[in-house]
Specification:
It is a single chain. By secondary structure, the chain is mostly helical. It has two domains: 39 residues; 93 residues, Orthogonal Bundle (Chromosomal Replication Initiator Protein Dnaa, Chain: A), CATH 1.10.1750.10. The chain is built from seven helices and no strands. The longest helix has 22 residues.
Length: 148
């Protein structure tokens, strides 16, 4: 994972590890080494790949691409696609509502409202949204699990 960090960040992490090692030695008089291991292949996909799966599925279902989702357009099918993006990103990534809203260019409360509206539609088995969400869940690779 450290190999994926930008150069300056990687150096900062390595320097911090050396400081921790020195402090530990000062207090305990025992030498330790902090080893930073690469990310495991069995971990969940990076959020950007999960996001790409979500966007691909939304495009397949609504024929709405990213610029349309991120636009301030208020057409019903685009708003539904945007709210579905909010719901799936909240459910399958560790992203906060603030981060999701920042990516789309809206306030975090808009994300909360969109997630609530999609959940309400799923609760009443909406004829448009429910099949889209169910087909997305079926199409997910086995190692991706819902976080929330």
């Amino acid at each position: 994972m450290i190999e994926q960090l930008p150069g300056a960040t990687r150096v900062a992490v390595e320097v911090m590890c050396r400081r921790i090692e020195r402090k530990f030695y000062q207090f305990n008089r025992t030498r330790v080494s902090i080893i930073i291991l690469p990310a495991s292949e069995t971990k969940a996909m990076p959020e950007s790949e999960v996001e790409n799966l979500i966007l691909a599925h939304i495009y397949e279902a609504f024929k709405v691409n990213w610029p349309q989702i991120a636009s301030p357009c208020r057409k019903r099918f685009i708003v539904s696609a945007r709210h579905l993006y909010f719901l799936l990103m909240r459910k399958y990534t560790a992203w906060s509502t603030l981060r999701i809203g920042g990516k789309v260019g809206v306030d975090h409360t808009t994300v909360v409202n969109g997630v609530k509206r999609m959940k309400d539609l799923l609760d009443v088995n909406d004829s448009i949204i429910t099949p889209v969400v169910e087909s997305f869940i079926e199409a997910l690779p086995a190692h991706i699990k819902a976080i929330r």
